[in-house]
Amino acid sequence: MEKSRAGEAVRRYLQGYNCCQAVVCTYCDLLGVDEKTGFRMSEAFGFGVAGMQGMCGGVSAMQILAGLAGSDGNLEKPGTKRAVYGTGRAMAESFAAKNTSMLCRDLRGDGHGKLRSCPGCVLDGARIVEKTLFPGAFEPYEGDEH
Q1: CA gap 81, 25 in Å, rounded
Q2: Which of 4, 64, 73, 105 shows the smallest number of beta carbons within 10 Å?
Q3: What is the pLDDT of residue 111?
Q4: What's the start-to-end Cα distance of the chain, in Å?
């Protein structure tokens, strides 16, 4: 069993990666994608998708990783969409159950009290990725909850 990488995702965020990049780049090597490609493909998902404060970057990252983990890659006759949608939905629902929202503007507290910090959202996304996409592969995260 490998040590949790959730703290590494937060470290990347604090280094300047956006929320989505921090989570995607922490796990992309396990799904056959090099970090630079993961960084580039997730760049537009920061600050609630292209800075519009919509879907949290941590949640977007879970969706990207769900696709990398579950897609059959069959360009002629895709057969895994429903399964990947199910995995992505379950992860998003887990995030929303913990934080009451998946929207960046709500989480950051624009116009009302903050629900969760950005490093906290990265941490939550990473923990859900480990639990859902890599069951039994990682030790539970034991560190700062942000």
Answers
A1: 23
A2: 73
A3: 66
A4: 24
